[in-house]
Amino acid sequence: MSIQSIVQAWLRLIETEWDQQRQELLTWADPGCGLSRRHALENAWGDMLFLVFAVRGSACRDDVSPLVPLAEAAVHEIAAEHDGEESLSWAPLKAGDLVNALQSVGCSVSTATMQTMTGWLPYIETFRDDVLASFHWKLGFTALALGDRRVCYRIAGYNADGSIPFEAGKTFQFNVHGFLGHLAGAVERGARASDVTPAWQDLLRSFPELLAAGAMDIGNLLWIARIIHHHIDGQPLAGVADFLHASIWQAAGLRS
Amino acid sequence: MEMLETWIAGLSPEQRARYRMGYAMARSGQEPGSPAQADARAAFAALERRMSLALGTDELQAALDQLLGPPTPEDMGTPEGRRLAAEIMLARMRAKQAQQGSLGDALTETDETADMASVQLMAAYTALLHDGEISAKDLLVLGHLSRQYEARYAEYVSSVDALANVAGMVGAIAAGLVVTFLSGGTAGPLVGAALAKWGVAGAGAGAVTRVGVSELVGGKHYDATGAEGARDALAGAVDGAMAVLSAGLAARFTSLVGLSRQALAARLTGAALQSTRAALQHVGRRAAGGMVEGAIDGFLSGVVGEIVFAATDKGTWDQGVWDALCDIGAATLKGGLAGVGTGVVMGGFGEASAAALQVGRGRRVISELAEQFPGQVDELNPTQLDALDATRAAIARGDTAAEARALSELEAFLTAGEIAQVRRAFFRSARAPALVATLRGYLRRMGVPPEAADIEIKALDVEEFAQRFGSDRGRAVLTLEGGRRVLHVRADIQPGELLDEASHLAQLQDPDMAAQMRLLDEMNFSDWSSTPAQYRLDMYQRKLEVEIDAQRRSLRMLEGDPQADRDLLAEVQRTLEQLEQRQAELAAFTPDQISLMNAGAQPLPQYLNEPPRLFNKRPREVVGRVELNAPGNAIKTKVDDSSANGYPGIREVRRIGDSWVERTLITSGCDGVVDQVQRRHDGSIITVKAHSGRPRHYVVEAGGTVNVEPGKAVSRGDTLGRESSRQYRLVEIEYDGNPQTVTREEILELDGGQWRQRGSESTQRGALMEEAARLQVDAELATRLVQGGISGHVRLPHQRGGGGFDDVIVEFQGTGDDVTAQIRIIEVKDYPNRSVPLEELTAIRGDGLQKNIDVLMQSVASARQGTPPPGFEHLTPEQLRAILKALRRESGQVRIELMLGPTTRVGAEGHHAATVIPALRKDIEAVLGYDGLVAPSGASRGRVAQEHVETVIAAHQKKEVTEP
User: Fold this and answer.
1) pTM
2) Which of B303, B421, B803, B857 has the most CB atoms within 10 Å of its CB?
3) In Å, how far are B695, B698, B906, B949 from B954, measured between CA atoms?
4) To the nearest 10°, the Cα dihedral for B502, B508, B511, B513?
5) Which range is most confident: B83-87, B130-134, B198-202, B482-486?
6) Residue B30 and residue B24: Cα distance in Å, rounded?
7) In this predicted model, what pLDDT tens digit does every residue of B388-423 receive, in sequence order?
8) A170 φ, ψ to 5°?
9) Residue B417 CA neighbour count, 13 Å, CB half
10) Which residues 773-802 of chain B have a CB within 8 Å of chain A?
11) In what order do the strands lie in the sheet with B755-757?
């Protein structure tokens, strides 16, 4: 099991299934398809969609841009059901994944939608020992990317009013918890992208095991890429998918 | 009257106070001392005038009682108020006293007790008022005496009404006969077609006669021109027609209370004469005077002849005085028609019947007491015979109030010991045989001949019953005596209760129902006060099921019997309706409510305070509103031993109310003998060898109690063991920065260390039942594969802590690129003889279901990306894609199947949207986007078959023995 073998599996899937998947996505994007927007989003949220962002980067923008209205409508549908007090399960994080992926290839998402999503974060309830710990970490990465320091620090295990120790160049292998704290520390300290690159490359190499263990998914990789490329390195949001693609191909020792 | 009642009920306290003052002023004759008093008196006088015009005598008194009501708190607070209240009480009593003393009073003793109560009240009033003031305490004394008088007066009115009713009935019969006679002449038809032909005319005459006779007998208590009269005219019409067309008098007569037999018999016949005359004036058909007189004479002679026959026929008298009166009613019908034909005139009717009754009474009493009092009975004088006869009559019809009164009369010439002897003798001769015969008749009509069912029936008097079974065991007890079932019924058992007992006996012949009944054993009610709400609800629900089944059996029997007592039929229908309402009420408790009740944070309904025993008094609960006990204990206590403590973001965990221990009963599913009890570190396995020779195994979890030993004979439904070792509690979890709290049930881990979320723990029984369910599913899949229903299947491993799916099966159809998948998610629950709480279904509802589906999706995604989790390695890319498509929300290809252990129950659909299955269905639909639940139904769908349980437990047992 290696990052190379995973990339090869992705390429096979893209080649054999993408056309059919794109048609299905267009169907679900249609509000008249008979599904609620929330349920349509559940269908769209899947490995095929996100590996398209990872494999094709901004080249897939035209293919996926019809999903913007779906993502925005799903966010507002979930918001309408949320009374502003009850805790939320991890399901809204899937809407966040899609919005982030769309922005990462240059699609525009409304400010209102982003504000709504950011407003959910304190209410989302995840647990470290859930079998899909990936959602627990997803909450931390999402909060860091969207600027909710309090939620991010809680997941990372730090007091929001304290500071996070940061050591440039440190790596964490399978320790996602440590990696999240490392990124949070980097953002807090205004570190450079090169300070976190070793940890990022190490995480990509560990990705197959983390994926099999349910601790990581491609949606999480997109959030991490956003934090490193956009927040730490100050690059445009629209280039995040391309950055992820390049990082993965580099980690896999493949030519992009 | 109903409108008036509604108007009075809506009066404000001020309006009522005004009328109270007005009433007191009007009755005392005092001059008003203030404009307010004058106004009050005028207002009351105007109201009383209107009520007098609209209401009959008793209705007016009842309306005044309602209007004036009891003293108010304001009355209690001032000397003037208390004085006013006392005056009103006295005035009410005087008004009612003035109604007593009509013709009916000669026939009932209840007016005497009312008089005594009035004397007590008057004496107390005079004594307490000697210093001109009435203290609050004095007023309470008067209130008690006034209430006592009211009760006595109500009995009196009831007796007079009953008498008027019977007399009117006899009059209606007579009128019906006369009309028939007039229609046919002296040589007219006797019965049959002519009666039917003139039924309408008979009804009209019956109405007129009934009102006339009721007025005569009821005096001021019967207002022929008021609403009472109007209603009875209609009822009389019906009665008249019924009297002509049928002989259904027995039920009418048995409702009579408080009357001495002799007086009743005399008045009955007298009323018949009176009403006949009245009928002749109203039938609207004229006939020549001589011809009518002759016909009447013939009619009367026939009546008297039949009465004499009835009085001297031992067979008739042996049925008891009350039955004999019914026979006389029937004889009136028969004799009247026969006499018309013969035209024989005999003398005074009343005297003849009284004499006839005297002869019968003497013979009966003497013969029945001769053995108890050898040589003494011959010396009894007519008065003593009367008293004994009244006692016997009361005992024969099971009228305990009349019996008590009659027994007190015996004190004048018998000692206490002799009275007890008399009572027992009369019970054995007059009451017991009738009770037994009635019960046996019921059983036969229910298709359960007592002989075939091997049931012996014994009737015991109240004292014998109390000595043997205690006084609080209802009015019937079933015992096993030498292997034979014996039903002991108490002397004062009521007709409806007797019918219930017959139904219960019939139920015992039904294996399913008998098992239900055995579960409601006293042993399973021990420590009732400390059992949690869920257990109580389960047991109460079972009792209701048994009771409802019993009522339905009774109803079927009564509806199939044209001679059935209509009142009893109506009572059974009413009881059934109440029970079904109560059942729906129970089923409507939401899981949240039950959790709060378990924790003591919400009060239990009052009816759950007592164990739901069978063979108890008939249910007479008020239905329509659940009456709850006092408010529960909702105190919240911070705890630090929850699995939720220590999680990031959780501020505090608080226990709500108290923790509780749940109870599970393990019962036998067959008749047989306990073959083996294997005690193991993880619990016990009980083996019962059924009569067929097949072994059946039952698991009692570690910490439970085994109630049987090898060699013990058991029947289906008998309790083999009991588990009461698991402790539960309700907690509230508060998060940082989130005002909203989460409430959940927690279970204490077996090692007693930590509390964790309910539904996430595993038990030995649960594991075995899951294995049995898998066996069952495997067998089904193999069959479908062979039959071509599916092209293949795979079982996917699924774990998410303790909250994952119990079993996930993917069924494939087609092959290659065309393969499609259907996903069966199976949740197995085994709670022997209990209901599954919604909290136990965390894996297939709400957030738990969402997460479990996500885990499945993620596992498939990992497999598709080249990192397959265990169990997914051999799936082809096409199959993986088919599974992924099946997991999509619009596919309808995910079915969540709830499978239950053989005796596990679940809140059904159809009662309330918040009970288990509807709530679960709604939860699943919210996640999947469609109704994906396959709920258990009937005896087999969604149920793990006992044969698979047997296979798994036997294998487990063997493994344990060979691998210590």
Assistant:
1) 0.54
2) B303
3) 9, 10, 27, 8
4) 70
5) B83-87
6) 9
7) 888 888 887 777 788 888 888 888 888 877 888 888
8) -75, 150
9) 2
10) 799-801
11) B636-639, B650-661, B727-735, B738-748, B755-757
